[in-house]
Amino acid sequence: MKIAIGADHAGYDLKEIVKPILQEKGYEFEDFGTNSTESTDYPDYAHPVANAVESGDCDFGVLICGTGNGVAITANKHQKIRAGLCWTPEIASLIRQHNDANVLCIPSRFISTEVALEILDTFLKTEFEGGRHGRRIGKMACM
Ligand code: RB5
User: Fold this and answer.
1) Per-block average pLDDT, block size 10, for the chain (143 residues)?
2) Residues near ligand 1 (Cβ within 6 A)
3) pTM for the structure as a whole
4) What does the pLDDT read at residue 93?
5) Among 41, 65, 73, which residue has the most ligand 1 atoms within 8 Å of its CB, making it the best to mutate?
6) Distances (CA, A) of 137 to 27, 35, 38, 40, 125
7) Secondary structure tally for the chain: helices H, strands E
8) Catalytic residue among 65, 78, 86, 105
9) What pLDDT score does 143 carry?
10) Across-strand partners of 130?
11) With contact defined as beta carbons under 8 Å apart, do 68 and 106 qualify?
């Protein structure tokens, strides 16, 4: 499984913590930046991650910014992206089970590293439930 990962300056430190952990767990990943804590614009990283998932180059995306909302709003402009903002592992589980989320958005300024890593682990190992949730996902796209 290949993960696209990206963050702005507020998410950079957490992104650097996440990368070796993904590797340890046996995931391939592609890092779309940013590459420092210098102030930058979150769409510059959210769009490339969303493109990588939309195109099928990557199976899932992980995006990190201060609130998680800037990257989530940006990624969700892409028709094939279902990006979910998570601040507890239970929400991470539910965005996979019910929403078939393909991009995880993490609010680095509002949760601990420990919780962020639990969220990531839960997101990556939880399957979509299908059934009625599949029907609902089918109604998401704008015509
Ligand atoms: C950066 O200061 C901050 O605005 C950004 O990381 C994010 O929280 C935006 O939604």
Assistant:
1) 98 98 98 98 99 98 98 98 98 98 98 98 98 98 87
2) 8, 10, 42, 65-67, 69-70
3) 0.98
4) 98
5) 65
6) 26, 34, 37, 33, 20
7) 6, 5
8) 65
9) 77
10) none
11) yes
Ligand 1, atom 3, lies closest to the CA of 66
pLDDT of residue 16: 98
Which residue has the least CA distance to atom 9 on ligand 1? 70
Q: 48-52: long-range contacts (C-beta < 8 A, 24 or more apart)?
A: 48/4, 48/6, 49/4, 49/5, 49/6, 49/75, 49/103, 50/74, 50/75, 50/77, 50/78, 50/81, 50/83, 50/103, 51/78, 52/4
Q: Is 86 a catalytic residue?
A: no
| CATH class held by domain 2-138 | alpha beta
Angle between helices 89-97 and 113-125 (to 10 degrees): 20
Active site residue 65: yes
Q: Closest residue (by CA) to atom 8 of ligand 1?
A: 66
Length of the chain: 143
pLDDT of residue 117: 98
Q: Which residue, chain included where needed, has tokens 């592992």?
A: 89
* Residue 73 in tokens: 């709003």
With b meaning 16 or more CB within 10 Å and e meaning fewer, what string describes 18-27? bbeebeeeeb
